[in-house]
Write a structure and sequence with these properties.
It catalyses: a triacylglycerol + H2O = a diacylglycerol + a fatty acid + H(+). The protein is α+β, with helices and mostly antiparallel strands. The protein is built from six helices and ten strands.
Length: about 240
């Protein structure tokens, strides 16, 4: 865990020289490193950070309040344990759903992954999470990221989306809500909500979306710009 081992030397904590191949799942790494419940820094050959390594889906405050309402404060420690223990459940998930392993992607930073920039599988850039991990030994730590669902099976499908906004005048708006729908050869996933922190004319924006539905090969995409009540876009469109 983090508080005792974040700054410990390699002999004291888990490290790449502990085994032929060491892969690490980092869940619940939040706050300053010496107070984070999970270890933040890479300590294996590959280090996987589900959902960026922070709070895990299904472990939010709303879930905690529901738990307290149902069972009282006796289980309040489950809130802390929920995210931290997700690493165990993700590994169990990889045993129960061996034929559909969750996929993690090599990326330098969490921010780059959130932009959908790292969804490549060339040259060992992606790997299975858990039991069926490909044992790729590297000279330096490899950081990998993925998104998951709130419950088993945790696997989701990741997509990079790029949007370019054309306009005759230069306009910038912030926090714009969108809905995106994906239609594929097997299924469809409609109205995935996301917010672009910034929208500017004559710029391209890249971001990550994910869905638990296996749509197969992507055939069509629909994008809906949610109505913004504060101002009108009609001038910009014309």
């Amino acid at each position: 865990a983090g508080p005792t081992f974040e700054y410990a030397d390699a002999l004291t904590r888990l490290s790449p020289d502990d085994a032929d191949f060491v892969d690490v799942l980092h869940t619940y790494t939040r706050g300053s490193p010496d107070r984070s419940i999970g270890i933040q820094k890479p300590v294996g050959h590959i280090d996987i950070y589900p959902n960026g390594g922070g709070f895990q889906p299904g472990c939010n405050l709303g879930e905690a309040l529901r738990l307290i309402a149902e069972k009282g404060f006796a289980d309040v420690d489950q809130l802390v344990k929920c995210s931290h223990e997700r690493s165990i459940h993700l590994f169990i998930d990889s045993l129960l759903y061996e034929e559909k392993p969750s996929m993690a992607y090599r990326c330098n930073t969490k921010e780059a992954f959130e932009k959908g920039l790292c969804l490549s599988c060339r040259k060992n850039r992606c790997n299975n999470l858990g039991y069926k991990v490909n044992r790729v030994r590297t000279k330096r730590n490899t950081k990998m990221y993925l998104k998951t669902r709130a419950q088993m099976p945790y696997k989701v499908f990741h997509y990079q989306v790029k949007i370019h906004f054309f306009g005759k005048t230069n306009t910038t708006k912030t926090n714009q809500p969108f809905l995106i729908s994906l239609y594929g050869t097997l299924d469809e996933s409609e109205n995935i909500a996301f917010t672009l922190p910034e929208v500017s004319s004559n710029k391209t924006f890249s971001f990550l979306i994910y869905t638990e539905v296996d749509i197969g090969d992507l055939l069509m995409l629909k994008l809906q710009w949610e109505k913004d009540t504060f101002f009108s876009w009609s001038d910009w469109w014309t």
